[in-house]
Amino acid sequence: MNDFLTIIGAGLAGSEAAWQAAERGIPVVLHEMRSVSRTAAHKTNNCAELVCSNSLGNNLPHSAPFILKEELRKFNSIVISSGDNNSVPAGSALAVDRDLFAKEITEKISSHPLITLKREEIVEIPEEGPVIIATGPLTSPKLSEEISRLIGQEYLYFYDALSPIVDANSIDYDIAFFASRYGKGGADYLNCPMDEKQYYDFIRELNAAEKVPMATFEKPVYFEGCMPIEVLAERGPKTLAFGPLKPVGLPDPRTGKIAFAVVQLRKENKESSAYNLVGFQTKLTYPEQKRIVRLIPGLEQAEFFRFGAIHRNTFINTPEILNNELELKTRPGVYFAGQITGVEGYVESASMGLLASLSAVAKIMGKNYSPPPRDTALGALINYLTTSSKKNFQPMNINFGLFWVKEMKIRDKKERNQKIALNALEQIKKWREGLKDSIGSAA
Ligand SMILES: Cc1cc2nc3c(=O)[nH]c(=O)nc-3n(C[C@H](O)[C@H](O)[C@H](O)COP(=O)(O)OP(=O)(O)OC[C@H]3O[C@@H](n4cnc5c(N)ncnc54)[C@H](O)[C@@H]3O)c2cc1C
User: Fold this and answer.
1) From the CB of 13, is ligand 1 less than 6 Å away?
2) Fewer CB within 10 A of the end CB, N or C, for the chain?
3) pTM, rounded to two decimals
């Protein structure tokens, strides 16, 4: 094993990973292909370029994205400190001047005495580890092939087809009922019944709703099972009622009657604190998703943990192939970090860079490492990535539905979230102190 760390990709995750290792005294060789080869979305050669929005997400105290950023601040994250240094006014969000942000990171990375930034496209994964693969949703095609070979073709995906996820506390249980189709396998699904008028009103509004156009490099090639609901609705007014909204085998246990159509919701976690709308992958704009989903009986007050989306995104089946240190189960020493692991978002990607780096650094130093506790934002993400269903694994951003929460009898949402936030920050401090004793800290 090498006494230095190899990292492929100097995006959000790769830059964070390089910084964390180098600040702990470990030499890093960081490979970045931009300047010799391009991606379809990046426009500059800067490290950590933000490809789309300039927002690092909600910064409102006690929101889930805030907790994640705050935890990263405790590790002197290069991504968050450069975000804070180059912020622009954006209400409750941490938005940044994207050029200054990326320039600061590029400058810090390229002038660090322990980081060698090599401008080249990597097409083969180095034999000798540790190596972190942080090549993002737009991993170059040749390296994608190599990753496929390494992990098995069936574990690498190229599209996200995400359904919205709603807060269980916001569902009206006087309308929604628990049942499985034909009573098979226990009452695992929540079902929102629609009568004929409600269904056709819903279809009319869905057809008229505003959709996000596909970027030119996002070829609209859908797998039949991942069709957006609005595309299905365009095929004919009854298509959804015979497809994902079919009511057969789902009589309402309270009346014994079968509705005209049924929207099914599936549990998103063991705690049943979040539900996803089955088959509801969509390209509607976020405000329209809110409006359309709230037309469904039982979801009139729905609060969203995640909106639906469909976009080009290379990611791996993390629960199947990585352990909770983000290391390949079949080839120790090979780590993955960033969006390719199945997290969504700039800050989530940087977070996985931090965690993969800490684990790889501990390996190089011959020290023990264990992942952050589940009641922290970092731990909640790792837990999601590594214990989710292997069959239905889908990318995820940070949200309260992922946190492990001790039995809490607080109904007020704000108060509850404050408690979760305070606890998370306390736990992450303890975890950081433990790590500091073994592998040191970032200055
Ligand atoms: C079009 C698009 C828009 C997005 N918009 C947003 C948004 O608005 N907000 C948000 O929070 N998230 C957004 N995301 C999701 C995600 O947060 C970003 O993609 C984020 O940059 C992911 O971080 P990363 O470090 O995993 O990958 P990246 O930041 O993409 O970094 C990967 C790096 O690896 C390099 N690389 C690729 N292949 C090779 C190779 N073979 N050899 C060497 N280097 C290589 C790339 O050039 C790149 O610099 C978007 C994603 C896409 C694709």
Assistant:
1) yes
2) C
3) 0.83
Query: What architecture (CATH level 2) is domain 5-161+311-439?
Result: 3-Layer(bba) Sandwich (3.50)
Kind and range of the H or E run holding 420: helix 413-439
3-state secondary structure of 191: strand
Q: Which of 86-100, 102-116, 217-231 has the lowest mean pLDDT?
A: 217-231
Q: Amino acid letter at 368?
A: N
The token pair at 104 is 């600061």
Which residues have a Cβ under 8 Å from the Cβ of 205 and sit 6 or more positions away? 291, 292, 295
Index of the ligand 1 atom closest to the CA of residue 34:
47
- Cα–Cα separations (whole angstroms), residue 387 to 27, 206, 316, 345, 374: 32, 34, 14, 20, 12
Domain made up of 165-307: CATH architecture: Beta Barrel (2.40)
Spatial separation of the C-alpha atoms in residues 439 and 367, rounded to whole Å: 7
- Residue of minimum CA distance from atom 11 in ligand 1: 345
Summarize the confidence of residues 47-73 as an average pLDDT.
93
Alpha-carbon distance of 154 to 171, in angstroms, equals 36
pLDDT tens-digit series, residues 327-373: 999 999 999 999 999 999 999 999 999 999 999 999 999 999 999 99
Rounded to whole angstroms, how far apart are CA atoms 194 and 295?
A: 10
Q: Which residue has the higher pLDDT, 405 or 293?
A: 293
How many whole angstroms separate alpha carbon 413 and alpha carbon 415? 6
Joined tokens for residue 55: 């927002």
Q: Are 397 and 160 in contact (CB under 8 A)?
A: no
Decide: 40 and 138 in contact? Cβ < 8 Å. Answer: yes
If you search the block for the tokens 């995750």, which residue do you land on? 13
C-alpha–C-alpha distance, residues 170 and 91, integer Å: 25
Is 346's C-beta closer than 6 angstroms to any atom of ligand 1?
Answer: yes
| Beta-bridge partners for 31 | 8, 118
The neighbouring-strand residues paired with 58 are 93
**Ligand 1 proximity of 102 Cβ (cutoff 6 Å):** no
The stretches of 228-387 forming alpha helices (DSSP H) are 229-235, 239-242, 286-293, 318-321, 346-365, 377-387
- Which residue matches tokens 């949703």? 137
- Per-domain residue ranges of the chain: 5-161+311-439, 165-307
Q: Positive or negative CA dihedral for 97, 17, 372, 81?
A: negative
Q: Could you tell me which of 168, 172, 174 has the C-alpha nearest to residue 254?
A: 174
**Tens of pLDDT along 216-237?**
555 555 555 568 899 999 999 9
